[in-house]
Specification:
The chain is an alpha/beta fold and 542 residues long. Helix content is 31%, strand content 19%. It starts with a strand and ends in a 17-residue tail after the last strand.
């Protein structure tokens, strides 16, 4: 005789994702959906989980992810699902894998190489988001994935890495590509204005593209032009872009560099004032004071114009190298100088192509071992590894990190690329946020630092980002919604914060349930690939 429910979670302390205080109850699941919350008989269930003494919340929705980088070639990476993420919003920072312009596919592939291990590099033989999503759906994935299309990727498809304004014809081509991406189900457009080619785009170009996104009810997520000296101008530009286009705005991984401690008081005020005027603006933040990015982000913008091959040519030129080294010591308008802001001793190499012994070492340590000046060691590494390294940069203000995390407009995101504890993509020393972002927010920031109650922390990682990106079938424990849950111990939950040993199983996380199926048990991912793409819905074109 078949049971009424596939799964019942009994005796749960339910944090429903709305920000409301927890309540006691049972949760019933049938065919991947929540069928009831209240008092349910265990006899009616095919499987029963007793959650006595444990918190149960919705699966975490990561509002800032780069899961699309390996989604086609690695469906079972465990770093995200094992920390409770069941939905990724990917394609951020202007660096999506779609659309692909056939004539410039090699430019895009070369640019994304630092993010994608060569063993799992896809073929870039699709053209638009619909094809890309269909392939993910065919293979399955550890998490569900909503896709942002990248402004930088669109610009590469039309203009390559040219440092100039688009012609009228090129602007129309970009808008046409963007419209196709939105028609295919992308939830918005992202920009990466510190990276080429995004850094070469002016505000009017962004406004025109955001008008297109606004017509579909989508969102504009921006990695702004500055997180240091020009931060206030960068926030004002993002707000102006949204106001002039009518597009909703998400400020990505909001942060402040150490030398500008306290600026978040002003940036958050700018956001509050914009909301008072009627602009729908929010932000996301990760719970760490070190970031991670391409090693080429350490170079001034002029050094990267034209793409990877031209950058490498400049690294051979004695004259260009001397100019780069001079810029490292200077304040160059319009460029966040991470070397001057952090110092060579706080920039850690996460991955390497030719010499694995440099991984886990700072640029200063590498220079000392090689008997070189640190700027020479950096430029030599960039040249030998063709700019394919990633780095961790410890340069952010702790005051501002805390200030942003606790603010009501901020949600929690990881800004991470999925990786694994073991296997073919378990390489290098990635940022610990890949493994511990969400448990760390619950443990270190909510419980230990007391920044906000647990129900608020959970809201920032579930209901809030799901609502923000229009993912109306998840993020809450509510009848009819997708049965994604995290079961954890509030007394012990925590995530990794060790940059030399990042691959750590979160503490205090008992189970992750995806579509009503247990996919993580006692920290171990069981290998199911139940995830699919989540395409824009409930937002009809105006």
């Amino acid at each position: 005789m078949s049971k009424t429910y596939d799964l019942v979670i009994k005796n749960a302390r339910i944090y429903d994702g709305s920000g409301a205080p927890w309540h006691s109850g049972d949760i019933a699941v049938k065919e991947g959906r929540i069928t009831g919350v209240g008092k349910v008989s265990a006899a009616e269930a095919a499987r029963v989980i007793d959650a006595e003494g444990r918190a149960v919340c919705p699966g975490f929705v990561d509002p800032h992810s780069h899961a699309d980088c390996i989604a086609l070639t690695v469906s079972d990476g465990d770093s995200k699902i094992a920390q409770g993420v069941t939905t990724d919003v990917a394609g951020q920072c202007g660096l999506s894998l779609t659309p692909v312009g056939r004539e410039r596919a090699d430019l895009l592939r070369d640019y994304l190489k630092p993010f994608i291990p060569k063993e799992v590099m896809p073929g870039f033989d699709w053209t638009h988001a619909g094809e890309f999503m269909d392939r993910i759906d065919k293979n399955g994935h550890a998490t569900d994935i909503a896709i942002m299309t990248g402004h930088g990727t669109i610009r590469i498809a039309v203009m390559g890495f040219d440092d100039r304004k688009p012609t009228d014809s090129e602007m129309e081509q970009m808008k046409k590509l963007l419209s196709q991406e939105m028609e295919d189900g992308c939830v918005g457009v992202s920009s990466g204005l510190i990276y080429p080619p995004g850094c070469f785009a002016g505000t009017p170009e962004l406004v025109e593209l955001c008008k297109c996104v606004a017509s579909y009810g989508g969102i504009y997520a921006t990695h702004m032009r500055s997180e240091s000296a020009d931060l206030l101008s960068a926030v004002k530009e993002a707000i102006a872009t949204a106001e002039r286009s009518g597009c909703r705005l998400q400020i990505s991984h909001h942060k402040v560099m150490n030398d500008y401690k306290g600026l978040s008081d002003e940036t958050l005020k700018l956001m509050e004032e914009a909301r008072a005027r009627g602009l729908d603006v929010t932000c996301d933040v990760y719970p760490y004071t070190a970031g991670s990015t391409l090693i080429s982000a350490l170079l001034p913008q002029w050094a990267k114009e034209g793409g990877v091959e031209k950058m490498l040519t400049r690294l051979v030129s004695k004259e260009d190298r001397e100019r780069m080294k001079s810029d490292f010591r200077s304040d160059v308008p319009g460029w966040d100088n991470f070397i001057k802001g952090a110092g060579y001793g706080k920039i850690l190499i996460c991955s390497a192509v030719k010499d694995p012994l440099v991984v886990g070492k700072t640029l200063q340590a590498i220079a000392d071992e090689q008997g070189k000046a640190p700027d020479e060691a950096l430029l030599d590494l960039l040249l030998s590894d063709r700019g394919e390294n990633t780095v961790v940069i410890d340069s952010q203000s702790d005051y501002d990190n805390v200030n942003i995390i606790k603010h009501p407009l901020a949600m929690i995101g990881s800004d991470s690329i999925p990786t694994s504890m073991t296997g073919r993509i378990a390489t290098g020393k990635p940022h610990p946020r890949c493994f511990g972002t969400f448990p760390r927010a619950l443990g270190h920031f909510s419980r230990d630092k007391g920044l906000f109650p647990l129900e608020t922390a959970i809201w920032k990682m579930t209901g809030y980002p799901a609502w923000r990106y229009g993912l109306g079938d998840r993020g809450l424990i509510e009848q009819g919604l997708i049965a994604d849950f995290v079961i954890f111990d509030p007394k012990t939950i925590d995530g990794a914060n060790d940059y030399l040993n990042p691959r750590q199983v979160p503490k205090g996380l008992d189970r992750v349930i995806k579509n009503g199926v247990v996919v993580v048990e006692n920290g171990r991912y069981l290998g199911q690939t139940l995830g699919k793409t989540v395409r824009r819905f409930g937002m009809n074109r105006k």
